[in-house]
Amino acid sequence: MLRVIIADDHPIVRIGQRVVIEAGGRCKVVAEANGPDELLNLLAEVPCDVLVTDFAMPGGQQADGYGLLSLLHRQYPGLPVILVTMFANVATLRASFAHGARAIVAKSASAKELPLAIRAVCAGQNFASESLREQLLEAGPGDQSQQPQLSGKEREVVRMLASGMTVSQIAARVNRSISTISKQKSTAMHRLCISTDVDLFAYARAAGMVP
User: Fold this and answer.
1) Which residue range or ranges hold the HTH luxR-type domain (predicted)?
2) Which domain holds residue 185?
């Protein structure tokens, strides 16, 4: 029987995940956490074989997103981590694998794909949601475990956008033209394989660019 810990700040999501994980009879949810702080406390006390965790769990002393993934990878390098997120895009996939995740599952597809992800990571394989695999094909060749790299100016623009500034305000702040800032934003989104502002802002927060 595989021992699984699940972490999500929404109780209803944890209930659904528990049902899906235990349905096949091969896994048992041995503990649940509502955020990074509680998760790290549980991992120190409760043995488990697989961790299923949300990506964005704000609050508490410990960071969520990539900061949490990196910490988990350092402290528990042998523990397979399955990331379940609503921010499922190529940038999140590549950066998550680069920070130690073994699988990434879109919340919209978690019911059918979570058992597949658990089976894959327990067999020593990586896993990505079908929707993400399709995005990877569209994004073209490249190492999916390689975190996307932005230039300093692109990163600066993304950070300011995520903090609530408009393109015009950024242009005035850094003394560059509006067209230049717009191009740097578009280039950053292309590098990250992100198509919407919502995903861009989510990536910026997860990457620690903004609180």
Assistant:
1) 143-208
2) 152-192
Name all contacts of 32-37 with Cβ < 8 Å and 24+ positions apart. 32/5, 32/6, 32/7, 33/5, 33/6, 33/7, 34/7, 34/8, 34/9, 35/7, 35/9, 35/59, 35/60, 35/62, 35/64, 36/7, 36/60, 36/61, 36/62, 36/63, 36/64, 36/68, 37/61, 37/62
pLDDT digits (tens, 9 = 90+) for 49-88: 999 999 878 777 777 788 888 899 999 999 999 999 877 6
Give the other-Cβ count within 10 Å of 202's Cβ: 22
CA distance linking residue 160 with residue 183, whole number of Å: 15
pTM of the model: 0.73
Return the structure tokens found at 93. 């996939």
Cβ burial of 38 (10 Å; 0-12, 13-18, 19+) is middle
Note whether 69 and 169 are same-domain residues: no
Amino acid type, 180: T
CA gap 82, 191 in Å, rounded = 24
* Closest C-alpha to 117, from 50, 206, 66: 50
Q: Tell me the CATH number at 179.
A: 1.10.10.10
